[in-house]
Amino acid sequence: MLRRQILQALVALPLFFIVIPVVVLVAISTLPFKGLVIILAKIFRPDLDDIVTGLSGVFTSYPNLNIVYYWYFDEHLSPEPDWFVRALNDEGRRRYRRLLQYWTTFCGYKFWKEDLNFDSKNHYREYDYTGDLELRQEFTEEDTHRIMGKLITAPWKVGQSPWEAFPIPLPGPSSKTLLIFRHHHALMDGFSTMNYTSEVLRTKIEFKPARKESKTGNSFLYSLLRLPYDLAGYEMDKRMYQPDWQFPPVGGTRDLQSTCLKSITVDKVKLAKNKLDTSYPIVLLSVLAGGLQRMFEEAHLPVPEFLPAVIPLPMPNHPGGTVNHVIIARFRWPIKADSVPERFKRVQEKIQQLSSPALLRIIGMLADLYGSVPAYLSKAVANASASGCSVVTSIFPVVDVTSEMQIRNMVCALGTSGNDIGTTFLSSGLNGDQRIVLIMDKRICPEDKIFYNYEKFVEAELDELLMYAETTGKHSEVCAV
């Protein structure tokens, strides 16, 4: 531990006062060229809109970084698209204009471009995928979950905004419908999607606070003073400590499998959270990690000590519209442990390191900077940033929904990015009913039976964590995210 602290202190000063300023200066040096490109676009390409910037600019480098939403309705939905695009009225066209646009490259920069031939029937239509994505006539809910891994990587049509929606009548005598909504992450984040669908579905969605205040007493000034040291630790975790198990890079589209966890209820996670006096994401990340260890032990595969993971963290004051208003952070996700309490404490420690307000702010600023440079630089930075990373873990709050329509539940899945990321977790849900979707490259866990038992492994881990919580009471030193 002391050796790590000394090394981190030695890295802090050159990183903060040499490397970061050089990165910023390189980005600033592109501004005159960027200004020239904007002028040229106004003259020679008046059909182009804004330059794609920020995280959206970074996300355009990943063709499979898509988000899929399953909405389950206890009623019939119209096959006509008018109702689904009714939010794209005069005011909505401005607020959700990315749903009418795609991106293209001009003079080294990516620009948003309006689809002048936009037809809602190209986007909201009958489910028309075939082959591995085809749904049999009497399909089950599990069938729809299992095609998520394939659906997440389906290519987009060139020259159209990358989103689509499918109303699919569910088998049976009653009028129930599955609405699949898929879009590329460059268009918008999860909160933007919820805002759009709340208008379309005429729902009232209540987002519960994503964070509670840290109990470590870290003021922003204190976190600012610690920033060089914390930033050094953050970069060391990213670059210098790789896991003993990597997801191998592949060319082309990954062969992904997917499963949906239903039994990890909000009530049980909250019970553990309250008894351990910790945060909801810490409990969830701890039991998901324990589930991975149990799954790989069952398959007689090596269990990683940790996995370099990406975790999206919500930013306050979401502006609405179609934007990406999140911070993309990385952390070492502890997986292998001798006991459930040990893993919980290690996960808590790692998440606590992301509680520094100054560190999160500079991570967000650097991401915005990377997304504002020419496309070839942005792609290089995006690939370098994601290199060596194995997992994306996204914990979207379970929202309370009041609607004129009979919405039963929601399931979400997230695509992979970069060459090394072969696994994603996304938890979400409605009205206290949580769903967690795991998507994994088939080469990582090739045995289907064991993979689809992952839910049982996580459930067993959560039960043991609750037993530990019952015996220890409230934990004393916890930081929430």
**Strand order in space, largest sheet:** 8-15-14-11-9-10
Distance between the termini: 24 Å
- Amount of beta strand: 15-25%
Q: In DSSP terms, counting alpha (H) and pi (I) runs of 4 or more, how many helices?
A: 16
Structural class: alpha+beta
Helix content: 25-40%
The major β-sheet equals:
6 strands, mixed
Q: Number of domains in the coordinates?
A: 2
Walk me through what this model shows.
It is a single chain. By secondary structure, this protein is α+β, with helices and mostly antiparallel strands. The protein has 2 domains: 47-206, Chloramphenicol Acetyltransferase, CATH 3.30.559.10; 212-472, Nonribosomal peptide synthetase, condensation domain (Chloramphenicol Acetyltransferase), CATH 3.30.559. Helix content is 39%, strand content 21%. The chain has helices spanning 2-29, 31-44, 54-59, 90-95, 141-146, 148-151, 190-200, 220-225, 227-239, 266-276, 280-298, 340-352, 357-370, 375-386, 448-451, 454-472; strands at residues 48-51, 66-73, 101-106, 109-114, 163-169, 177-184, 203-206, 256-261, 306-314, 326-334, 391-395, 400-403, 407-414, 423-430, 433-441. The strands form 4 sheets. The protein has a 6-stranded mixed β-sheet. A 4-stranded antiparallel β-sheet has the order 5-6-2-13. Helix 10 packs across helix 11 (280-298), helix 10 packs parallel to helix 16 (454-472) and helix 11 packs across helix 16 (454-472). It is globular, with a radius of gyration of 23 Å. The two termini are 24 Å apart.
